[in-house]
Amino acid sequence: PGSTTLPMVIFSRVRLGLNPEMNALATLFITVVTVGVVLANQFMRAQERRRAEEMRLAFVQE
Fold first, then answer.
1. pTM of the predicted protein model
2. Long-range contacts made by residues 26-30, C-beta under 8 angstroms, separation at least 24?
3. Rounded to an integer, what distance in angstroms lies between the CA atom of residue 39 and that of residue 33?
């Protein structure tokens, strides 16, 4: 119909030449993904530390 998807818009604009809007959009995507990966990594590391501490305490109590 009358709408286009974001990838189609990006690919068509890349062919025609990059403009500041595409640069800003790419920067935003990269930033959001990077922050998400860093937060997920921190969360997983905290969980692993808690699990290791619980295992250590379980062995000490026996």
1. 0.62
2. none
3. 10
Residue predicted with more confidence, 56 or 35: 35
- Quote the tokens at residue 37: 């990966």
Task: Determine the structural domain holding residue 35 and report its residue range.
Answer: 6-61
30 is a domain residue: yes
Kindly state the tokens that stand for 39. 């937060």
Question: How many whole angstroms separate alpha carbon 62 and alpha carbon 59?
Answer: 5
Residue 14 contacts by C-beta under 8 Å, 6 or more apart in sequence? 22
Interhelix angle for 20-61 vs 6-16, to 10°? 130
